Amino acid sequence: MAVNTTWADSSTCPFCGDELASPGAGFVDHIRENDDCESEHEQWRENLAGDLAGEWAG
Ligand SMILES: [Zn+2]
Predict the structure, then answer these.
(1) Residue 7: which region, alpha, beta or left (left: phi > 0; alpha: psi -120 to 50)?
(2) Which residues lie closer than 8 Å to 39 by C-beta, 6 or more apart?
(3) How confident is the model over 27-37, as pLDDT tens digits?
(4) How far is CA 30 from CA 5, 15, 19, 34, in A?
(5) Ligand 1 centre distance from Cα of residue 17 (Å)
(6) How far is ligand 1, taken at its centre, from the CA of residue 56, in Å?
(7) Do residues 47 and 40 make contact, with C-beta atoms less than 8 angstroms apart?
(8) What is this structure's pTM?
């Protein structure tokens, strides 16, 4: 399993470690307001998609 969709604490941002207003929904607001975290999140999602594509193709 190459896919890792979990992080230790969903009440903090996995990219900058900031506390979130609320787990889940707070994270969406957080990355919307933080360009750095948003672009890291984009890359993280692309990495996941890349891993999946590799596994499906393999
Ligand atoms: Zn963050």
Answers:
(1) beta
(2) none
(3) 999 999 999 99
(4) 18, 11, 9, 6
(5) 6
(6) 31
(7) no
(8) 0.67
